[in-house]
């Protein structure tokens, strides 16, 4: 259940005066005369009266005014009913993908029936059978969404009439914007057509007949523009309405579909607080993570911002500070694949198309066809379009397996070439956005750089770089408590050590090992001795040494290879 919008006009004159009086001792302890005869109280009463008037108007703002303010924040209509299927199809699909997670709509068909008052989005094949209905109500002021899981949601419909001199030219004015922003456009058109109508520049203007007629009048003359009952023509009459109209305009009716005004106001308030510009270190890190997650649903990782350092080229210079440079270290999560090769074509079609659309930036990919060739070693993604005149004009992307089947190469004449790591897991090949040594792929770095480049300050020199690791080895000697399972305790010790030094989940706060933080032997003692069934730690060697600490470079993290931890048990 959504929270109701607050009522902002519920404070009265008495409420405001009471609040103002209570603040007097805070700001002026010498002011003790609160009687109406005091000039200060008289001023407070005046300001309270003016404030009450202003507050009263707060909730009297018309919905159209709210809509105009929301448009300034980039929150407008979702799509136009008469442009689906058609020009606004992508807007409709984006709405359902983002709002309901219905990414399958990117490959769905859209049909209208019931005289155009119902639209059906559906996907029917051997793998999926899904649909969404959109239905107008009888008054044509609401569209109801009916999801295939039974969910229902209402959208608001706003009718917009655009008036044209000729249908092939741009519109002259919008009916609802006169009087309003389009008044001057209408006056300019009429006076240019008829020089004798210059008087309308100074005439009164009003709408009458339930907003079906626009009237210009100066007391002795008038011009009427009448909207027909079918809303498909506007007729202009001069000084009388009994004869034929002086001129006729064509009308195109757009049915714009919006979220409810309450929903959009909340979206507007949220958008104000959202982070866009990359200025601080936190901005760079949060926006980098946004990009990583946008590249593929469920993909995650960690971004670390290093100010005034060029870790791409500048390390070789030995400079401690390089003003204007910002380096962002990308550490991908190694657990979640982008797609499964063996499930293409099949249940991973949507994931692959979403991933490639984000990677290549081509909307055509969202509705492309998929096929496998060369014995399953090549996946071909081809644009679906009318190519009868030139079959070679359709765009395509190829994913090719290498000979050892541990990499997939993306090839296309339209986009850069990238490599993906392939790992065989549960008898299936999974594609990942990192390299064999756990570093981000070139694709991932390029995507983050493009994302941040649009948001950084002009003077910032941006570098997206791999993490640099210190390869840590540990030799641990422990003594166990009585009646314990040695293998279980050893597994727990190793697991705890790996988690503690993990670049994604390590450190004392669990948010990843801090960049450049030194390794202290005493902390490893403390960590291991806190594990259940460990009696005490006899000895720890870090990198073959019993030194108290190991110093890392300021840009290094820690990596523990598979055989980096040796644990020996000494039972007394």
Question: Main traits of this protein?
Answer:
seven-stranded antiparallel β-sheet, 29 strands, 572 residues, alpha+beta, 11 helices, 5 domains
How would you describe what is shown here?
With about 575 residues, the protein is of the alpha+beta class. It is about 25% helix and about 30% strand. It has eleven helices and 29 strands. Strands 1, 2, 3, 4, 5, 6, 7, 8, 9, 10, 11 and 12 form a twelve-stranded antiparallel sheet that branches. It has a seven-stranded antiparallel sheet with strand order 15-21-20-19-18-17-16. A three-stranded mixed sheet has the order 13-14-22, with helices on one face. Strand 10 (about 220-225) and strand 11 (about 235-240) form a beta hairpin. Helix 7 crosses helix 9. The relative contact order is 0.07.
Cα end-to-end separation: 63 Å
Shape type: extended
How many strands in all? Answer: 29
Major sheet characteristics: 12 strands, antiparallel
Oligomer: single chain
Beta-strand portion reads: 25-35%
Instruction: Please work out how many helical segments DSSP would assign.
Output: 11
Which spans have pLDDT < 50 for at least 5 consecutive residues? none
Number of domains: 5
Give average pLDDT, whole number.
84
Helix content: 25-40%
Decide which structural class fits the backbone: alpha+beta
Overall radius of gyration: 34 Å
Summarize the structure.
With 572 residues, the protein is of the alpha+beta class. The protein has eleven helices and 29 strands.
Topology:
Layout: H1 13-27, H2 39-58, H3 63-72, E1 79-80, H4 89-100, E2 109-113, E3 118-124, E4 129-136, E5 142-147, E6 152-164, E7 173-174, H5 183-193, E8 204-208, E9 213-217, E10 222-227, E11 233-238, E12 247-258, H6 261-273, H7 281-295, E13 301-307, E14 325-332, E15 339-340, H8 349-360, E16 369-373, E17 378-382, E18 396-401, E19 407-411, E20 418-425, E21 428-432, H9 442-453, E22 461-465, E23 468-471, E24 474-480, H10 486-501, E25 519-520, H11 521-529, E26 534-542, E27 549-550, E28 556-559, E29 565-569
Parallel strand pairs: 14-22, 23-28, 24-29
Antiparallel strand pairs: 1-12, 2-3, 3-4, 4-5, 5-6, 6-7, 6-12, 8-9, 9-10, 10-11, 11-12, 13-14, 15-21, 16-17, 17-18, 18-19, 19-20, 20-21, 24-26, 25-27
Helix pairs in contact: 1-2, 3-6, 7-9
């Amino acid at each position: 259940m959504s929270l109701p919008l607050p009522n902002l006009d519920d404070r009265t004159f008495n409420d405001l005066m009471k609040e103002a009086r209570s603040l007097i001792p805070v700001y002026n302890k010498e002011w003790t005369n609160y009687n109406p005869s005091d000039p200060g109280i008289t001023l407070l009463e005046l300001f309270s009266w003016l404030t009450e008037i202003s507050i009263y108007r707060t909730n009297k703002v018309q919905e159209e005014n709210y809509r105009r303010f929301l448009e300034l924040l980039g929150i407008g209509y979702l799509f136009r009913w008469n442009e689906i299927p058609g020009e606004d199809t992508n807007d409709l699909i984006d709405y359902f993908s983002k709002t309901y997670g219905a990414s399958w709509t990117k490959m769905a068909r859209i049909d209208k029936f019931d005289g155009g008052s119902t639209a059906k989005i559906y996907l029917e094949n051997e793998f999926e059978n899904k649909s969404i209905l959109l239905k107008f109500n009888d008054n044509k002021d609401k569209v109801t969404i009916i999801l295939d899981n039974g969910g229902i949601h209402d959208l608001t419909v706003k009718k917009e009439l655009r008036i044209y001199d000729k249908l092939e030219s741009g519109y002259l004015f919008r009916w609802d914007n006169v009087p309003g922003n389009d008044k001057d456009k209408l006056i300019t058109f009429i006076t240019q057509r008829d020089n004798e109508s210059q008087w309308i520049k100074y005439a009164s203007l009003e709408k009458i007949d339930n907003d079906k007629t626009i009237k210009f009048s100066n007391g002795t003359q008038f011009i009427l523009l009448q909207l027909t009952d079918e809303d498909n023509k506007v007729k202009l009459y001069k000084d009388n309405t009994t004869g034929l109209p002086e001129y006729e305009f064509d009308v195109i009716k757009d049915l714009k579909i919006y979220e409810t005004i309450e929903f959009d106001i909340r979206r507007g308030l949220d958008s104000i607080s959202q982070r866009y510009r990359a200025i601080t270190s936190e901005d760079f890190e949060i926006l980098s993570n946004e990009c990583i997650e946008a590249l593929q649903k469920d993909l995650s990782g960690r971004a670390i911002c290093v100010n005034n350092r060029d870790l791409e080229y500048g390390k070789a210079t030995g400079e401690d500070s390089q003003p204007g440079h910002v380096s962002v270290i990308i550490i991908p999560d190694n657990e979640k694949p982008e797609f499964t090769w063996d499930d293409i074509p099949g249940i991973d079609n949507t994931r692959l198309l979403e991933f490639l659309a984000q990677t290549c930036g081509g909307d055509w990919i969202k509705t492309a066809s998929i096929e496998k060739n060369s014995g399953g070693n090549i996946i071909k993604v081809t644009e679906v379009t009318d190519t009868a005149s030139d079959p070679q004009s359709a765009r395509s992307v190829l994913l090719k397996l290498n000979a050892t089947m541990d990499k997939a190469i993306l090839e296309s004449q339209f986009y850069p070439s990238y490599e993906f790591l392939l790992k065989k897991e549960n008898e299936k090949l999974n594609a990942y956005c990192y390299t064999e040594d756990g570093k981000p792929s070139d694709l991932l770095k390029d995507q983050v750089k493009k994302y941040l480049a649009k948001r950084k300050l002009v003077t910032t020199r941006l570098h997206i770089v791999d993490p640099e690791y210190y390869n840590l080895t540990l030799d641990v000697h422990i003594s166990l408590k009585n009646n314990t399972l040695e293998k279980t305790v050893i597994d727990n010790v190793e697991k705890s050590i790996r988690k503690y030094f993990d670049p994604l989940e390590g450190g004392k706060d669990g948010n990843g090992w801090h960049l450049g933080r030194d390794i202290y032997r005493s902390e490893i003692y403390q960590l291991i001795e806190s594990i259940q069934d460990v009696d005490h730690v006899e000895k720890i060697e870090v990198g073959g040494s019993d030194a108290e600490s190991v110093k890392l470079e300021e840009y290094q993290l820690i990596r523990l290879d598979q055989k980096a931890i040796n644990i020996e048990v000494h039972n007394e």
